[in-house]
Amino acid sequence: MWPEHWIEGLADVQKELHRWEGADSVAQGWAYSVSHSQLLVRFYRQQGVGSPSPTSLWLYLKDCYRVSFHDIWRDVHVRIEERPGKFGPEFIVTDADRLFVHCGVRPFAAESSECLRFERPAI
Prior knowledge:
8% of the residues lie in helices and 51% in strands. With 123 residues, it is mainly β. The strands form two sheets. It has a five-stranded antiparallel sheet with strand order 5-1-2-3-9, covered by helices on one side.
């Protein structure tokens, strides 16, 4: 199920990402659509066996010009940089050598305990 409410402001998305960073966090390149130039990255914290389904933070990146990511990585420290572009602001999303995304639309984030897919129309 696609979340109804997404965090949209760049500062707010960065603040949310900061809450999810650290040695106990795991990031996962979850879904990538080349034809629609969009990427979903899932952030979660590992839970013990038998614990309830953990809530995940989903980072939604659109209008992706260049994408490179590991399938899964630990010790998450994602950074977003806004740069002027030919047609307006562009965004560089990085996490050391494990994630690099150059996109033309401001990133979005949402918390959800559901697994997301690109079934519904984009935001």
